[in-house]
Amino acid sequence: MIRTGIGYDVHPFAEGRRLVLGGVEIPAERGLAGHSDADVLLHAIADALLGAAGLGDIGLHFPPSEARWRDADSRDLLRRVVELLGEAWLIANVDATVVAESPRIGPYREAMRATIAATLGIEPERVNVKATTNEGLGFIGRVEGIAALAIATLQQR
After folding, report:
1. Which of 48, 55, 78, 121 has the least C-beta neighbours within 10 A?
2. Distance between CA atoms of 97 and 88, rounded to whole angstroms?
3. How far is it, in rounded angstroms, from Cα 80 to Cα 69?
4. Interatomic CA distance for residues 28 and 16, integer angstroms
5. DSSP annotation string for the chain
6. Mean pLDDT throughout 4-33?
């Protein structure tokens, strides 16, 4: 059996926070606001994986109402998602898109792919990271935040 899931996440920019995307810290004047490290890319991937497996969403497993997830490293959350998939599911591939006017993702793309693959325990060839802008439109276009979308395909073992 093959199953596919979609994930989406968005966080606003905030002063005094690190900017972490795809598990990679990116030098920036502002980071993203959120209960955890606010890594929109890893959150979207986690939701895509959970959705494909029929296991709910990231908010169900890591609710912001729980203090233990405050400032959590999203790589740890993603590792926990992989544990939830267990031996039942093989991650066939993950394809993700970061939607942001700034920063430019290109210089960090390969580091993100490698970090995501290592976190998921799969080969980098199974992970694709793309980026686009919002052409100056909406909250993303006004550089108020960043969004990410992901799709994941799982194969039953």
Report:
1. 121
2. 27
3. 12
4. 10
5. -EEEEEEEEEEEEEET--EEETTEEE--SEEE-SSS---HHHHHHHHHHHHHHT---HHHHS-TTSGGGTT--HHHHHHHHHHHHGGGEEEEEEEEEEE-SSS-SGGGHHHHHHHHHHHHTS-GGGEEEEEE--TT-HHHHTTSEEEEEEEEEEEE-
6. 97
Q: pLDDT tens for residues 71-102?
A: 899 999 999 999 999 999 999 999 999 999 99
Structural domain of residue 53, as residue ranges?
A: 2-156
Instruction: Give the tokens for residue 66.
Output: 């729980």
**Side-chain half-sphere exposure of 132, counting CA atoms within 13 A:** 7
Which CATH number covers residue 108?
3.30.1330.50
Domains of the chain: total: 1
